[in-house]
Amino acid sequence: MLAIILVFLSAFLLFQVQPIMAKMLLPSFGGGTQVWTACLLFFQAFLLASYGYAHLLSSRFKLKNQFIVHGLLLLVGALALPIGTQALAAPGAHPAWQVLLQLSIAVGLPYFALAATAPLMQSWQAKVDNEHAYKLYSYSNIGSFLALLSYPFAIEPWFALGDQSWLWSGLFVAFGVVFYGYMARFYNQAKRLGTTEQSAFRGGLHHKWLLWLALSGCGVMILTASTNAITQNVAPVPFLWLLPLALYLLTFVLCFHSTKLYHRVFWLATLSVCALIACFLFFIGSQFDIVSQVVLYSLVLFAACMVCHGELVKAKPNTDYLTQFYLLMALGGALGTAAITFVAPLVFTLYYEYPLAIAMALMLFAIAVLLDKQHQRSPWLAGSALAGVAISALLFLWLDSQFKSNDITRLRNFYGLLTVTEVNIDNRVERRLIDGTTTHGVEVLSGPGQGEPQSYYRQQTLVGQMLSQLSANAKVGFIGLGAGTLAAYGKPGDHYHFYELNPNVLATAKSQFSYLNASAAQQHYHLGDGRVTLSKQPAQRFDALVLDAFSGDAIPMHLLTQEATDLYLSHLKDNGLLAVHISNTHLDLTPLMRGLAEHFELAIVYNESKSQQRHGHDVRWVVLSRSAERLVSLRSSQSPWPSTTTPFVWRDDYSNLLQAMKFMGD
Q1: Which residue of 25, 235, 491, 555 has the fewest C-beta atoms within 10 A of its own C-beta?
Q2: Which three-class secondary structure state does DSSP give residue 329?
């Protein structure tokens, strides 16, 4: 029983720390979903290193020496506490590598010590209870699963990040104390049975090692690609990170707990249908409301991981190869995450890794059943799986040819995907900048409206009115560039400062759109996260500051906190204007804006501008100021508030996206 409790607790702590550290990193790295992907790579890489350590320790050292070495490792991990208090620097030219470095400094030692505990304990338990050694892995995954479920509901809403760090660190110390007691008790038991000298590992490389590697890697690729897809148009917050990871772990729990829960014919049929669903999600998923998107992506993820992990269990070895099995699983996970984090952005200009990972799961199923000599229907099942791949591939290729016919260029990097398209609508040719799946800028190349600001920035919008009314020689800051549309409002003598995180956005705005080149304002460009950059600059004394730094429909929450707003106000003149773009498919940000206005005692104007054109955008902006007089000219544009939700404020150490979620849509 003590072994079960310790394995459960180690896994619980292992997965509880992941959202804590990722949330600490978000403000420094722009708040994108890629931060979570890079965090997953770190956790997978350290899991691999810890499993390698566990395999080496259990196969080369006597039991007493294993206890001494691992006991010292836990002590060193405890000395590195509390987690997350180390300085986290701003990102540089290689943000993914910096995420890995900073996590290594902040939580590397305690995480490594915890991650090695479960496989070591299972190898030890195999000495006295060989039959139930793999059962401990199931309990370990239950701990991981509950950790992920509890964080967004029981931890994040009630504890600030600093408190979460101390709470986790305290539990780590308590775990270590109990673990020392377990080692003393277990050693005496093993000594009585005469198993203190034997090694848990007796063979060379298992003949199915490559299958273990591929199945585990495929499962993690599906997890990471699904997470990217789900959070592409919603803020990358713990709940939407953790739901896919929790489902991924649940498939481990089910498959390792009982082989009866994985029936090959049923899950092959389910995954084949889900592969078709995945094709449609790839192209039109953003047209569904957020609840439907999450449900459908989760269904595909669950089916694919059930196949990967079900086949993994069927191929698992006897306990002589236990730590080698876990080591190769960890290696597959690390390679799968690295493929999504580093390789995919270099190779693909769209998120093609998502459908490819689903197809890979079907192909691995076919290989696994053919290698299983005990299954009589192997050729039939393998053929069915490959037929599912072929049908899905044909559907995907047809859809791809339809949807990319208007594309001019596509760019992808750590910060996301950009696409430039040209469409002919209502006798005018429009060029559009699409970030993820959301239009972030439109320019009319020919026809009515040519040369005028369009879309979210048209003259009728609140931001258009505000910029048009500014006095001569205005100094204006813009957090977020998009296609550079707002530069069209610049007048001779104006100074426009653009703060842009993604270098691809700046390059695209300059090369594919004319707003920047045609602007009369003198322009200044600052690459990097807007908030981080402003925090390093002296007070700019802007006449106005425009906040429009969204990626797709995803909002970088660190730009909307109490501390961020305080920073913006420090860079404005006493009567300066702060404009915030709050149009969003899934979130109602007006209660947050009202909450910030109340907290800082600001005057506020809200406007919703309805589109008069087919395929246009309804636009929501708010303008805030310390001076109510500065907003008098904009008061005539005041729209009724769309929500009666009680105003709230987000802080750097506490934010709850569920407060702003439009669960039922507008």
Answers
A1: 491
A2: helix
